[in-house]
Automatic annotation (TrEMBL):
Coiled-coil region: none
GO molecular function, one term: siderophore uptake transmembrane transporter activity
The protein's name: TonB-dependent receptor plug domain-containing protein
Regions crossing the membrane: none
Any single GO CC term annotated in Swiss-Prot or TrEMBL for this entry: cell outer membrane
InterPro entries, alphabetized: CarboxyPept-like_regulatory, Plug_dom, Plug_dom_sf, TonB-dep_rcpt-like
Top-level taxonomic group: Bacteria
PANTHER family referenced in this protein's UniProt entry, alphabetically: HEMOGLOBIN AND HEMOGLOBIN-HAPTOGLOBIN-BINDING PROTEIN 1-RELATED (PTHR30069:SF29), TONB-DEPENDENT OUTER MEMBRANE RECEPTOR (PTHR30069)
Species classification: Bacteria, Pseudomonadati, Bacteroidota, Cytophagia, Cytophagales
UniProt cross-references to SUPFAM superfamilies, sorted A to Z: Carboxypeptidase regulatory domain-like, Porins
Amino acid sequence: MRRWLLLLPILLIPHLLPAQAITISGFVRDSLSGENLSGAVVQIGNSTRQTNGYGFFSLRVAKSTASRTLSTHFLGYQTHHQRLAPAKDTTLTIWLTVQAKQLEAVTVQSDLLQRDVAPGTYRLPLTLLRQAPALLGEADLLKFVQTLPGVQGGTEGTAGMYVRGGSPDQNLILLDGMPVYNASHLFGFFSVFNPEAIATADFYKGAIPARYSGRLSSVLDLSMKEGNRQKTHGRFALSPVAGNLLLEGPLVKNKLSYMISGRRTWLDAFTNLLSLINNRNRLGYHFDDINAKINAELSPKRHLYVSWYRSKDRFLNVFTDSRYKSVYGYDWANSTLSARYTQLFSEKLFGRFQLGLVKYHYALNTRSETAEGTIHFDTRSAIRDVLLKTDFDLSAASSVQLQFGTQLSLRRFTPEIRTAQGNVPVDESAAPAQPAYSHEASAYVDATLTFAEHMSANVGLVQSVNLVPDRTYANLQPRLSIQYGLSDHLSLKAAYNTQVQYLHLLTNSSLGLPTDLWVPTNAAILPQTSQQVSLGIYQGNRKGFSGSVEGYYKWLDNVLEYKTGSNLFLTRASEWTDRVLVGAGRSYGLETYLKKTTGAWTGWVSYTLSWHQRLFAGLNGGQWFPYTYDRRHVVSAVVTKTTRPNQQLTANFQFNTGATATLPTSRVSLPQPDAGISPIYQGSFQQYFSQIDVLNNRNNFRLPAYHRLDLSYRFDKVKKRGTRSWILACYNVYNRNNPFIVYLQDGQLKQFSLFTILPSATYSYAF
């Protein structure tokens, strides 16, 4: 690792030598709303920069280059050209205007970014997300990510992500810089993110920048809208599942703006109606989420942002008859609160400081009432995370862009607490456990180097430290990616990444249930680690088409799995280290991606060929076995046809090789230990013998292939006071019975399918 410490200054020194240069910096903003535009491309001569999450850019250029035209491109906006002839460092504000035709912006932006974007990096098109077909008409950000190569979902309809052989806990999901620990509503069928409140969504799975750490497989970085600084706008939408409302506007024009968005399901209205029909069984469920943000301009160079988010689910099932009553309730919730301060210290240096609080909890409550008495069990688990972040962008030279910063995370885990009341004796061993603490600190530096017009590299380094009782872990994590332009449109990219994760998720099922238990590393369980290499060839925008072919190999260490026969439900946190095995994983594959961005037909097609495996000394005879979501072939296609300027037809097709499962290969009969067998047969066979399933290998069975076609048709109409939109959609058009659960019954393999063909209609109005 010391060689990595020496590598950075060696690479930087030639680029930091004094030169006759000036700095051109500034902000790129929407001319109508005043919001900062993240990801805009700013170019002067051969120098190109992308604006950061706050719309800021900084270009260090030679004085001879400065007397040229500065061009700014952003998808969906008119290209902005400005002639410059500055004699000294200059700060600008660039205002972009929305345009109807997006051909030029798409083509230019794709070409310019082709040399700069690292492998495995995507900016998600949220406009397409809002018109794509979705389960019951509810647009879902996480399912949209699942259409990208190398990403797959879990079981039918669920919102979990499995990225390049990783598990759901290995994905870092950030909302305005704050981590979200449970990203699912309705037991995993919908994500907790309201697409109407999201401004940008960036996804990384290959060359992950050094500013992100703490997870092994991927990063999904979401930013909420800042709020229109010019006029008040709003939008409401109604789907069969939920309704949502968004409002944004200025509190003080051009100085102080707000955004607030709320969403709530009305499934409980239907379940309450069913309860009136069947008074023996009362079923209730609802979810809601709220996003809010304040954006204050303290001065042209200083801004303050305050963000708040909360999501909550509640499930209740009550069954009653003449002799028995049972009550079964779940509730789980996420919340984040953060304040961010940004300042432009100079034309070269931009800084941001963030303080935040994250909370997550779930509670399971059951009560059984009989004539003999009452049994009451209560289980709870919670996480509290206090975070402090500092990040800086420095334009050190015309060919060097630096990012560096620190992060401190103070986590408290309140483990599962089991209590028993009524006439059931309380098990003293199940007394509430003490909270567990895990504190993590990290510092990073990331350097983007341009060696020549067609070659650049990104060199990063993260130093992290994790403090847990009786143990301190310290890890150095190098990152390296290289991009080489073979031609104006074709480039070769390679990357090497190391990641360390100081958290584990003990998963009870594949459904994303809130009873999955987050636990920290401790003196006995080491942090998870990964190393990944990737190599790909990328085709820039050529006649409206772009694409890539990328191969990768990833190693995982210190991953966890429950021991065979462990009690997977209501496992106390103080016991979890005795119930798990520590092992390794490996994943490798080839990903292809083809995208069309112009014309009446647009969209993308991806194909992934991959192998995902696990190794545990106490499982499968100590041999490698397929991971649960080892799917050899995964195909995704999202295609949109613009039939008229205000009407689009979108199709979404998914094909996956079936997931793996562990099923018995045979069944044997063994004598009951206390059956008292005598030479004379005196009773039934079952009285003396028990049937035992024989499990040969782990994940020895592959489920049938999963495939599905969804369609949607969107048509907009401009009204006097706004725009009305209808989306008519059909989920699972040809009514494929995909397996949700597979089981053995009477020696025959049976499957349960959850979703058949589901039509839906969604209405929205923007004003």
